[in-house]
Structure formats: C-alpha cells, structure tokens
Amino acid sequence: MSEQFDGLTPGVWTLDPAHTSASFTVRHAGISKARGRFGDVEGTLTVGEGQDLSFKAVMKTATISTGNEDRDNHLRSGDFFDVETYPEITFVSTKVEGDELHGELTIRDTTRPVVLEFTYEGAATDPFGVYRAGFTGETKISRKEFGLTWNAALETGGVLVADDVRISIEAEFTAPTAA
Q1: Sign (positive/negative) of CA torsion 115, 121, 126, 129?
Q2: Are strands 88-97 and 110-125 parallel, antiparallel or unpaired?
Q3: What distances in angstroms separate CA 157 from CA 30, 32, 67, 92, 168, one per listed residue?
Q4: What is the pTM of this model?
Q5: Is residue 49's pLDDT more than 90?
Q6: Angle made by CA atoms 10, 12, 16, in degrees to the nearest 5
C-alpha cells in the first residue's frame, strides 16, 4: 500500500452515514450563498493491493435539506431533482492521481466526468474498537450540464440561481470485518 494511504487494509470498507456529509453551495440572487446537504448517503471504499482505491457513493435526492421547507420542496420537484423519476445521485471513481479523485457523477440520468480535490485524513480505531478511515473532497460543477436548468431572471439583471455548484464531501468508512 502506498505511504499516501497508510493504514488502509485491503477489502471493501463501508461508508458510515452518521459520520459523513455530502453538501453543496450555490450562489443565490448574486448576493449570497444557499447551502444544502443530502441526509441519506451510502457508499463503499474498495482498497486493493498497491495504490488501488475506488469509491462509490449514492445520495438519495428526496433527502435534500437546505433548512427551508419551501426551497427543499422546490428542489425535489421536476424543476430540479425530480425525485420521483431520479431518486439517486451517484458517484463512481475511475482513478486516483495524487490528490485528485477522478470519477463519473450522475444526476438526472446525465453522467459527466468530475475531479474532486481530495485528502486522506488518516485511519484510527475508535473507543468502541471500530477501525475507521476518513476522506474529504471538493469539486465544482455546472448544474446546467446535468439538466438542472430552472432559473428566474432578476429585475436588477442576472439570475436567481448561479450555474456553478460547489460540492463538498466528508466521508468516514469502517474497515472490512474479519471473516
């Protein structure tokens, strides 16, 4: 195993949703930022021999939360995530290069390549004897490239919702259990 990922044992690690956050930030009305997160996230980290790492994450779109019920309901509607038709957002990694995690992000059945700047935060055994590893990552996407095109013009010029969306992930995984 590469020194870059010291402490990761081979096998399939399980994402711990209680210690994971998948959030986003988007400019609102050109003057502030709206933030949100997905409450239901699942995933795996597969550690192979050498430097082989692969990640898979699934976020349930119906669990989007911005702290505003009206906005959340609008985001769940056909104008944005259309949670009835597209219940999940997925990310599947394709390769790790240094501090970049390359992968395929799928939103509304549209898949695009993305690169996350990521950091391996290390591995440790918690007080309950569970061996864990942590990662953080961030990327920026164009929401229009994923079919999220709803917007409203502002009287002062510009639009209500910016195109660029910053996505942040803080993920904690639990090690494979011994057979």
Answers
A1: positive
A2: unpaired
A3: 9, 15, 27, 38, 29
A4: 0.90
A5: no
A6: 120
Distance CA 19, CA 155 (A): 42
d(CA 13, CA 132): 9
Q: Is 106 exposed, middle or buried (0-12, 13-18, 19+ CB in 10 A)?
A: middle
- The number of residues making up the chain comes to 179
What are the structure tokens assigned to 45, written together?
């980290």
Which residue shows structure tokens 């959030």? 23
The greatest distance separating any two alpha carbons of the chain, rounded to the nearest whole angstrom, comes to 63
Give the integer Cα–Cα distance in Å for 25 and 119.
20
Render pLDDT for 66-101 as a digit per residue (tens, 0 to 9): 999 999 999 999 999 999 999 999 999 999 998 999
Q: Is the pLDDT of residue 41 over 50?
A: yes
The closest alpha carbon to 113, from 99, 98, 95, belongs to 95
pLDDT, one tens digit per residue, over 105-163 is: 999 999 999 999 999 999 999 999 999 999 999 999 999 999 988 988 888 888 888 89
Within 8 A by CB and 6+ apart from 119, the residues are 99, 135, 136, 137
HEC letters along 31-78: CEEEEEEECCEEEEEEECCCCCEEEEEEEEHHHEECCCHHHHHHHHCC
